[in-house]
Automatic annotation (TrEMBL):
Gene3D superfamilies, per database record: 1.10.1740.10, Winged helix-like DNA-binding domain superfamily/Winged helix DNA-binding domain (1.10.10.10)
Any one GO MF annotation of this record: sigma factor activity
Keyword match Transmembrane: no
Lineage of the species this protein comes from: Bacteria, Bacillati, Actinomycetota, Actinomycetes, Micrococcales
Keyword terms, alphabetized: DNA-binding, Sigma factor, Transcription, Transcription regulation
Domain RNA polymerase sigma-70 region: from-to ranges: 39-105
Protein's UniProt name: RNA polymerase sigma factor (Sigma-70 family)
Region of interest (Disordered), ranges: 101-134
Comp. bias intervals (Basic and acidic residues): 108-128
GO biological process, one term: DNA-templated transcription initiation
Amino acid sequence: MADKPHTTRDPDGLSLGDRAAHAVLEYRQGRPAALEAVVREMTPLLWHTVRAQGVEPQAADDVVQDTWVALVRHVDTIAEPHAVLKWLLVTAKRGAWEAVRRRRRDERHRTELHDGPDPETGAHRELPTPDPAPDVVVVEDDRDRTLWTVFQDLPDRCRELLRLVSLADRPDYKHISEAIGMPVGSIGATRGRCLAKLRTLLEQSGADDIWRHA
């Protein structure tokens, strides 16, 4: 009896995270079509994730491409395929942060070369630093630690939703729906309830000033 032809089409109803896991397993078996489909589907989400970190459009394209290359490079070492979606989002954000650091470093270097030494003293002009003052950094770091600690007390569903919604200035509810398996029409209301829970937790912890200054 002849073998039935293999199909890489995912079962209906799977979330984007499930489909990404399925695609990795298929790719390991020498069947790349499922991964190619996930690449097409997830690239816009990754691109908006990178752009939300302040990366220019062309550089965002490079970061997203590097993210997919990294996935293929490490595909055989991924121990938990169902963590692929989160891995991609984290890798894209880290690549975005590095791209922003490189851009700022290059801009400072160009500015220093352009300004040159002071014609009267011969000394190089002191350039204003774009970095915040140390006291501001301390306050912001303390606020972020407090917020992150309280955030961990939210239900898993809320944490996952708020992370995805915060990735872009204009989050794509369709991709978020697919990523976490939540109907598009429920995302806005659920987001509101999750933010209300976060506010309540902040108030209970005595850190409600974080909410007022958010």
